[in-house]
Amino acid sequence: MPGLTLKLKTKTGQQHIVSNLDKDGTTVGALKQKITELTAIPGAGLHAVLGFPPFKQLDFSRDEAPIASIGISNGDTLIVEEKQLSQAERDQLEAAKRLEQDEKLAKELAAQEGGDLGVGGGFGGILLKQVVPSDNSCLFTSIGFVLTGKVDPESSQYMRQIIAATVNGNKQEYNEGILGRPNDEYCAWILQPESWGGAIEVSILSAYHGIEFDVVDITNAIINRFGEDRNYGMRAFLLFDGIHYDPLYLESTSGEPPKTIFPIEDNAVYVQAEQLAQEAKSSRQFTDVNKFTLKCNNCGIFLKGQVEAQQHAKETTHVNFGEV
């Protein structure tokens, strides 16, 4: 039986032919890939309608569905264009892409180790990343997830209050030399939702909750252990790519609920985290904080790297930055 042939037209006047399609064997995802190859329109923003009135928009949302399911017939003409995505849609697609990469990486690591890294306490499973919103509270949302198992951005303000109270209550320890600004100024700053969290905030929350937080730094392929010197009995893992934090959890291979907190003496998950850091660094799944560009949303100035942003914040008290 001969395959289907489709005609493609773009808003710029380009015309292409796609042939040898199988209405039941060719998937929507495969068709989108062919269209992308011919038109350079990315699949995520691809919008298509059948080209004769009444125009019918095609449902390209189910990549695994056969093309017959979306009403395409032999000889049809498709008018294709790139749909302008909102910032929220772009963020969602980027998050899904990162999650897919991390899951693939984790499964490869598990396969290399025989599918089970259950050394010590016998934690058999795959260490995966839970994507949280890419905002200035990602650290606090990530810590909230490992503690409760839920992605709840609303918990961030509570953690900011814990940090401010801790710093304000010990001005000798948390002095300007440690904080990079006067104690009172820091306390007001950290309560603002646009203020980023980092090492100081992780260490305070580690002490407050009595748990070791291990930050898997994929830029340098190392794990920074916050609370290691306090001999806590439990640990949790956070992934840091240079500007963004996400929590890690263990997806069980035996049907048990996902785990986010692990006994210190069980080394299996720690080994996975080390391997994850090495593999992610090798595939460059990180942001170089010395080279990326930020825009100050308060005054509009563009800054290169984390150092310039921190210096600008110190000089102007501006703290609302966005990555360009």
From TrEMBL:
Residues 127-251 form the OTU domain. PROSITE patterns: OTU (PS50802), ZINC_FINGER_C2H2_1 (PS00028). GO terms for biological process: endoplasmic reticulum unfolded protein response; ERAD pathway; protein deubiquitination. Keywords: Cytoplasm, Hydrolase, Metal-binding, Protease, Thiol protease, Ubl conjugation pathway, Zinc, Zinc-finger. This is Ubiquitin thioesterase OTU. InterPro entries: OTU1_Ubl, OTU_dom, Papain-like_cys_pep_sf, Ubiquitin-like_domsf, Znf-C2H2_OTU1-like_C, Znf_C2H2_type. GO terms for molecular function: cysteine-type deubiquitinase activity; zinc ion binding. It holds the Pfam family OTU1_UBXL. One of its GO terms (cellular component) is cytosol.
